[in-house]
Amino acid sequence: MSVRFEEHEGGDLKIFLNPEPGMVYTMGVDAATGLANDNSAVCVLSNALPFTQVASYRARVPVNQFTAIVDKMGRYYNEALNVCEINYPGNSVQDALLQYYKYPRNYKPETHLKADYGITEQFGLRTTEITKWLLINETQLALSNGDLILNDINTLSEFINFVYQSSKRKAAAAEGFNDDLVIAAMLAYHGAKLYPFARILKLDTKPKKIILPDYDRAWKDFKAKFANGPEKGVIA
User: Fold this and answer.
1) Is the CB of residue 67 less than 8 Å from the CB of residue 91?
2) pLDDT of 53-72, one tens digit each?
3) Which of 91, 198, 199, 224 has CA 20 to 30 A from 169's CA?
4) Number of other residues whose CB lies within 10 A of the CB of residue 189
């Protein structure tokens, strides 16, 4: 399936880097109903260190329209791994991607903090206070270490206003702000770090001219200089 996007000033989709042949990508998907103040959002990362935001999407659209956009974005970026939050209404987005669009690469969560660590059979990631703090902690570490590069000003703005609300005892957007792109970015990073992509080094096959010192000549000059004994001021 070939996908092409046309440039449109002021559009909801922002592309910072086009897909590279052979590169692996991951997209975090945070869905909203399109009926309230929340936006649906997508963050696409390249899986090569440092994980870099290559595209973002944020808009207030119906769920079916958003699902079609997610499918197109994922296929455009080499069938990026889809990490979809499956809290309502994200469960319907994930289901449509599987059943209707036959999207090929979908995240399955890990069994954290268990002796039998493995991959579950469920598609998508359900965010709870437990899993949300796992996402927050690993994203904080990545940002502080320079392992995650964000290019979208809207994403950065949402991160700045993503705070801990003492009254509600949870991390969320400050009053009057949104955190849809924050959630999408954290989901994308969580999936990307599980499958890091090693770049292939392009080796320079051209022969290099190696310049070595002329040791023979240097030794002859040294012997000639001291043939008649040490010069004045030189310790023998």
Assistant:
1) no
2) 999 999 999 999 999 999 99
3) 91
4) 26
